[in-house]
């Protein structure tokens, strides 16, 4: 597991997992308790909680704003938890150590140049008590803790669902610092169904609160006509402007989602069992860490058997390989150890600047 400063580790995962074991193996035990006590989602995973906008920002170490692990790179997984997909929260939780290690460790750490920040979201349909749950962008034990606050309702069968509210949040209520360099973060929607193809005002307010349109305007400088809201095509298009967005389909109608994502961003798999490997492969290819011909060897090197590795290689064969590397600032992103004069500056101090820079009065650790 990664030894990054303040990063996710096997030890921190084990602490949270022990609480799951103590609760009889119920991954969502903490979330169920909150709902029993309050009738609401925990604020950390309530889309209307914590100011609505999910922010992925640099964390610093020391009085001169030093980057301990590099610039943040957000990954968000939006998982279907209806019908046969109801076990996805447990799968996300159980696979978290593997997923984070694929991002940060080994011969091909696919986000090795960044500080990975992980978000998880789950969706159902508008008939459920809670249409959407969405965590904060985290980089340590909180990733696992917040997964235990997410409760799959498992309703709705495998007919049309409502991922649009999760996609809406990703597109319009996400502030990823990496976007300020002209790079994109990563978003993965995982489903086995079609959608209803729209959002409506009543449910947007229900999910995100009465502040939703105000917060969209604050974050994106967009004012929606509340009587003419974006449809699925519009929402995905907006998401793709700031994220490498992939639809990962489990025996789901490929042609339906290709209309919105484009066929090059749709990946069809047998099950979610190997989801972390699929995601890390998509990231590695997009970041130019390896090429299509290297996928099988990469996956074998991180513990997957050859047959499953070949399946994944075929599934991702049409994606835009190296898409992230085409952006002007790809090779200029500040690296681990960079020092900044001010919080949230885009560019670090030069050596000459560092020699002349006098820090303010010493402060305690500052992560965000």
What would you note in describing this structure?
With 368 residues, the chain is an alpha/beta fold. The protein contains 14 helices and eight strands. The strands form two sheets. A six-stranded mixed β-sheet has the order 4-3-2-6-7-8, sandwiched between helices. The protein has a two-stranded parallel sheet with strand order 1-5. Helix 10 links the parallel strand 7 and strand 8. Helix 4 packs parallel to helix 11, helix 6 (164-172) packs parallel to helix 9 and helix 12 crosses helix 13.
Gyration radius from CA atoms, angstroms: 20 Å
Distance between the termini: 23 Å
Give the averaged pLDDT, no decimals.
Answer: 91
Question: How large is the share of residues in beta strands?
Answer: 5-15%
Report the uncertain regions: 354-368
Helix content: 25-40%
Provide the fold topology.
Blueprint: H1 10-22, H2 29-38, E1 54-56, E2 72-80, H3 88-94, H4 96-104, E3 115-123, E4 132-134, H5 141-147, H6 164-172, E5 174-176, E6 185-191, H7 201-208, H8 212-220, H9 232-240, E7 243-250, H10 254-261, E8 266-269, H11 275-286, H12 295-301, H13 306-315, H14 351-356
Parallel strand pairs: 1-5, 2-3, 2-6, 6-7, 7-8
Antiparallel strand pairs: 3-4
